[in-house]
Amino acid sequence: MTNKPDMKIILSNPRGFCAGVDRAIQIVERSLEKYGAPVYVRHEIVHNKYVVESLKTKGAIFVESLDEIPDDGAPVIFSAHGVPKRVPAEAKRREMFFIDATCPLVSKVHKEAERHFANKKQVILIGHKGHPEVEGTMGQLPEGAVLLVETVEDVQALQVEDADNLSFCTQTTLSIDDTADIVNALNDKFPTIQGPHREDICYATTNRQNAVKAIAQTCDAMIVIGAPNSSNSNRLVEVGANYGCPKSMLVQRSADLDWAWLDGVKTLGLTAGASAPEVLVEEVIEAISARYNVSVDTHSITEENVVFNIPRVLRDAEKDTAA
Prior knowledge:
The chain is α/β, with parallel strands linked by helices. It has helices at residues 19-35, 49-58, 86-93, 104-118, 132-138, 152-157, 176-189, 203-216, 231-242, 259-262, 278-289, 312-322, and strands at residues 6-13, 39-42, 60-63, 76-78, 98-100, 122-126, 146-149, 166-170, 221-225, 248-251, 267-272, 293-300. The longest helix has 17 residues, at 19-35.
């Protein structure tokens, strides 16, 4: 195409994979290397179709329930979002070999909820109903022990047995701003409520949202690469729209680009959710470059160096292979 229009792409950094996602994918890949196919994974290991499909080609089989898995001794992996306690209990009952890929930051929230419950506190969870992370956190405690709130209005309508004996936790992938409003509402309504010692929203969610905030006002449009069922990706779209770039949208990959929507855009912000690989960012830039004369600038607010260890059973396997 000749006489292509100019477009400046501002790449938001940090973006893409976080340490928890990277660890979860490594767990599946190394399990396949050590034990061979098939390896069963309960729920999508992370919320990204490209990642899931690529692991399927290597021999991973994704299921939503342990009932779908035969008793053939193959490893079973629990996704990064975490699972209710009944799931590993059922796996033990069936003598399954399972590996837990729950993100350590999600596990921290699980431990908080259990600690509050052990201290006889009613636990309130800020999160999105139906999200696997929320189901996993609520599933750490007996039914009815956790009350879920999604909005400030939910807080205002909340009825509790003992207003002086409450605690709260949050889903790790929420909007920092929305969560702050809900926490303020909880504190206003229940002044003695106990919160987490440290913020539950994970470092990667916080960094990606702050990076979008830093560029939103300078962009005519914002694209977030991520899955429709990815909470942190959807929150990035909201942050872009709320911080100066109303024209913000989510795409899974380059085939989803809406060229009419991009018409007239001179400066495009581009980021990726915590479960979207960098190859999809490169794919989107390449597709746009076919129609536009593209220049790419990176705007970085911080560098991430967080790494989470994979389970020892797989680390030991790596040493054995090296030997």
